[in-house]
Amino acid sequence: MSKGDTFENDLLKLIFNATAIANIADNAASSPLTNLYVALHTADPGEAGTQATSECAYTGYARVAVARTSGGWTITANSVSPNANITFGTCTASPGAAATHASIGVASSGSTKLLYSGALSSPITIAVSAAPVIASGSTITED
């Protein structure tokens, strides 16, 4: 079975904008997440992986927090995109492998739950004095 288009949008709004799905789910936990965290990976972390699986580890790297609001993410036509470029820390030494995948999870560090992961449209070369960027036009599609 597949999900209906309206529910796919509702699900993305719940996860990325903290918008309740009437009579099904809400965001009224005692301490709901206010940010989601985007990570870069040197290989596919896989569905059984965590955000730490194959995560980039260059000097200067850290996951990037994106607000879990409509100010952080735009949802249309069963897809979600960041409202601004996601810019990672500048590589200051030991660049390591290129980033081939990205993920979205729930914490700024550690082996935390993957919400979404996938291949980047083009690998990002990690170079000293450069800051990797995921463009605001990047999308995740729920279908």
In short:
This protein is mostly beta strands.
Which short descriptors sum up this protein?
143 residues; mainly beta; 4-stranded antiparallel beta sheet; 3-stranded antiparallel beta sheet; 9 strands; 9% helix
Secondary-structure topology with pairs:
Layout: H1 5-17, E1 35-41, E2 64-67, E3 73-76, E4 79-82, E5 86-87, E6 99-105, E7 114-124, E8 133-134, E9 140-141
Antiparallel strand pairs: 1-2, 1-6, 3-4, 4-9, 5-8, 6-7
Q: How far apart are the termini?
A: 11 Å
- In terms of quaternary structure, the protein is single chain
The coarse silhouette is elongated
- Mean pLDDT across all amino acids: 93
Please state the structural category. Answer: mainly beta
Residue share in helices? Answer: under 10%
| Biggest pleated-sheet summary | 4 strands, antiparallel
For the record, the count of structural domains works out to 1
Could you describe the 3D structure shown?
The mean pLDDT is 93. The strands form three sheets. A four-stranded antiparallel beta sheet has the order 2-1-6-7, with no helix packed on it. It has one helix at residues 5-17, and strands at 35-41, 64-67, 73-76, 79-82, 86-87, 99-105, 114-124, 133-134, 140-141. With 143 residues, it is mainly beta. It has one helix and nine strands; from the N terminus they run αβββββββββ.
